[in-house]
Each structure stands twice: as structure tokens, then as C-alpha cells.
Description:
By secondary structure, the first copy, chain A, is an alpha+beta fold. Chain A has helices spanning 84-96, 148-156, 163-178; strands spanning 6-15, 20-27, 33-40, 44-49, 55-63, 68-72, 75-77, 98-110, 119-130, 142-147. Chains A and B meet through strand 1, strand 2, strand 3, strand 5 and strand 6 of A and strand 1, strand 2, strand 3, strand 5 and strand 6 of B.
Amino acid sequence: MIYEEKTMKSEKIYEGKILSVRIDTVELPDKKYSKREIVEHPGAVAIVPITDEKEIVLIKQFRKATEAVMFEIPAGKLEINEQPAECAIRELKEETGLDAKKMEHIIEYYSSPGFTNEKIHIFMATEVVIGEADPEEDEYIDTVKVNIDEALDMINNGIIKDGKTIIGIFMAYNRMKRSE
Amino acid sequence: MIYEEKTMKSEKIYEGKILSVRIDTVELPDKKYSKREIVEHPGAVAIVPITDEKEIVLIKQFRKATEAVMFEIPAGKLEINEQPAECAIRELKEETGLDAKKMEHIIEYYSSPGFTNEKIHIFMATEVVIGEADPEEDEYIDTVKVNIDEALDMINNGIIKDGKTIIGIFMAYNRMKRSE
């Protein structure tokens, strides 16, 4: 049985700088109504940068939402009308200083479809050249390099706790294995 | 350089049934202020149910946030004071009718730490017995069974687009390979 939830009413609750929140009143298959709280997000890209030495470049960054310093792959929000591949090149450069000659789209997915439309596009960057990083004004970022086995260990040990980073590492690992 | 963002002000914008939204004004290392929009979420569990035939039970469900029917592993939000393992047993039963004799915690991660504190605990359920499903009033769910290779194909083909499902399948795959 495939069905949709028809929107009977949609109420904008909050319109922020990045996020907005709305409550949709929907009609279910049995004609009853229910409410859905939805966070609208512009979407994001994340990049798995692989050096010629087959190391992954991770960033370390404090995240207010989780109150923790986290290991992540470089990432950023899509600007209005920005193509994901463009955004990937821009964010990689800003956050790590890396220029990538090769930028391949490896997956796109929804971070948490139960409450948000945030879609994350993940790219793999190879043939990278190190330049000058240029983070945004309110970003403070360190970078670390790990090999793919260390990265997998960091997932299994709970050191890497970020969804896009876990998915990006698994996808990159599968590609690297296939091309061996 | 490890630092934290000190909260100078915290403003509650919205307090919903499931989500709430706040804006924190934070102090950066250079003493400048910035704002963080944060969605507070109670956290969730997701379960990779593996049958004795080594098939994964997926659910198919319409998601209002993405306006699409999605393939996902069974999942649900944590109730107040509920332990993740309890919640996993409850949600698995409600959504699929399955009772699991074995429920192992395989990973926990943040779905999107740039804007939300949602933490997802993933379990692997084995030695499952089929009973009667009992979804919540506003949940309409179909189940499908796929073997692990089909599940990996569905990730690579973009048929599975849900973050927790991708992570759950990769983690379960690694465990299944190891125990072979």
C-alpha cells in the first residue's frame, strides 16, 4: 500500500537564518488528521578528501548542538542556486585549503527524514593539492589525516560520531577497495 | 586548538510536540559573538532486524518532510526516561511485529550535528520471531525483506536514501562478514 499524506494546512512557525520550521496538518489514509513538525533546511554537501598517500583529511570542530568537538569530513550548506559540485569545491577549499582536481559524487541521502528535508550530497575528492584554508568568520577548524583503516576504527570505537562522516568513509572505502 | 563556544544567551523560539528550537548566542575564540540555530530532539533508536535466513527487514513509509515513500530500517523516538535498548524492542515490535531474542547495540551517532542534537542509537536484532505489528495511530507501514547484497545495491542505486538505514546496513554487513 503506497499512500501520501495530503497537506490540509501548513503553518510557518519560525523563519531563521538557516532553518525554518513549519507544522503541517496532514490527512492520513483513514481520513483522520495528524500533525507533522518539519524543519526546512537548504541541504548540504560533504567531501571525503583523499590524498595521494590514500589518507582521508578530517576536520575537528566544536559543535554547539552537541556541545562537543567532533571529527567530521569537510562540509557546508548549499547557498541559494548553488550546484552541489560547486559547493563541494568551495567548502573543501574554505575548510581545509585543498584544491581537488577530481570531485566525484558518491551518494546523496536524507540525514533524518522523520523531521527534516535536509539532503546531504557526498563527494569524494582526489588528486588534491594543498593551498591556504579560508574558513568562514565563525568557523574554527583543525585538520587531521588518517588512513582508511584508522578511519574505520574511529567509527567502530565511537570516536567518529557524525552521520555524514560515517557514510562518506564507508562509501569511499568501498570505492577504494574496488579500484585496487 | 580545542575550544568551546560559551553560551552568552539562549532564546527558546519554539517548543513543539517532538522538536524544540532555540537560538544560542555564542562567544567565539576571538571574543566575537555568533548565533547558532539549534533543533532539540529527544533522540531515536533504529533497528536492523536480521531473520534466520539472513534477510534484513525494511519498512516502507511515507515521510512528509521529504514528500516521498522511503525504505528505512524500523525506528522511533525515545520516550522520556526510556532506555535505548527498551525503545528498540518496543519500536521493532510496533512497526514490524517482530520479537527479537537478541538485540545488540552496534553504533550511536549524531544525524546532523551542524544544527541538531538528535542522537540515533542503532541496534541489530537477531533470532527474530514474527508476531503482530501494532503501529502508532498515525503510522502506515509496509515491510519488505531483502538480503544483504540487495540492501547494499539499494544504497548504491539510490533507492535507500535514509541516513540511519545506510549506516545500519553497513554496520550489520561488517558484523555479518566478521562472524562468517
